[in-house]
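Summary of Year 1 activities. Much of the first year was spent building the evaluation harness for sequence design. The harness presents a backbone, in tokenized form, and records the residue chosen at every position. We chose the following record to illustrate the format because it has been used consistently in internal testing since the harness was completed.
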């Protein structure tokens, strides 16, 4: 008679965590960082159809890495949660923190109660009146939440990207400079790779916009910003130009 197969709960959790981490590391990276007018999201993502960065609500956006169908499922749940709460109570009651708690519960339940954990990592960010009141929450596959400041890197070789970001990031960067720092940090995973504007998905939460603060940047705008930053004219002059793209809606 064969012995029943037993795996300790500790081992089971460890196996699930390893499985999820491997899945997330296979994906392409995303970085989120603060700049002087808000929060910038940059994804290594050549797909025009499958977004890794999305608007959730007026001042709140979402970025994700890992399995597309899994994080898309979470994104839709977040949009529903925000819409219902904003409608029932007040739009100001919908916060990144509340959303992060909802995601943490979902991910935690999936991780402990199902055989296959979600292979995803998320950032939920909310732009405030000023940089000090911006909120950036990072959620991992098991429902852990971290309150981040300055910048976050996730997916792919996230450690290499985060290290490169640490070297380049400074508070109060203009949009062009922040974008260049993000792109160079994403390239740090592979010394031979140059990321073109067309292989990037870029969006901002811009605190100076009216109502909906989320905006996607088209490839031409990304290219212009990168050229500007590289030519060394990044700085005060760039911010005058960053308001002129308001005609492209997200």
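For this record, the design step produced the sequence shown next.
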């Amino acid at each position: 008679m064969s012995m029943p197969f037993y795996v300790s709960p500790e081992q089971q959790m460890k196996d699930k965590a390893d499985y999820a981490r491997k899945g997330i590391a296979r994906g392409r990276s995303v970085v989120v960082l603060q700049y002087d007018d808000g929060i910038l999201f940059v994804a290594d993502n050549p797909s025009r159809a499958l977004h890794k960065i999305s608007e959730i609500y007026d001042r709140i956006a979402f970025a994700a890495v890992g399995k597309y169908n899994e994080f898309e499922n979470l994104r839709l749940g977040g949009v529903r949660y925000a819409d219902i709460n904003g409608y029932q109570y007040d739009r100001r009651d919908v916060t990144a923190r509340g959303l992060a708690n909802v995601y943490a519960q979902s991910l935690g339940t999936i991780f402990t109660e199902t055989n296959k954990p979600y292979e995803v990592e998320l950032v939920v960010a909310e732009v405030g009146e000023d940089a000090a009141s911006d909120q950036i929450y990072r959620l991992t596959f098991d429902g852990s939440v971290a309150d981040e400041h300055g910048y976050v890197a996730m997916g792919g070789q996230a450690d290499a990207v985060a290290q490169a970001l640490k070297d380049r990031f400074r508070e109060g960067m203009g949009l062009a400079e922040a974008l260049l720092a993000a792109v160079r940090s994403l390239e740090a995973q592979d010394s031979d790779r140059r990321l073109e504007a067309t292989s990037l998905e870029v969006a901002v939460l811009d605190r100076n916009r009216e109502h909906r603060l989320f905006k996607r940047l088209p490839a031409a705008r990304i290219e212009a910003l990168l050229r500007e930053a590289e030519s060394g004219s990044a700085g005060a002059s760039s911010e005058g130009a960053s308001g002129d793209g308001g005609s492209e809606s997200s």
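The beta strands are 30-35, 38-44, 53-57, 60-66, 120-126, 135-139, 145-148, 151-154, 200-206, 214-216. Quantitative recovery figures across the full test set are reported in Table 2.
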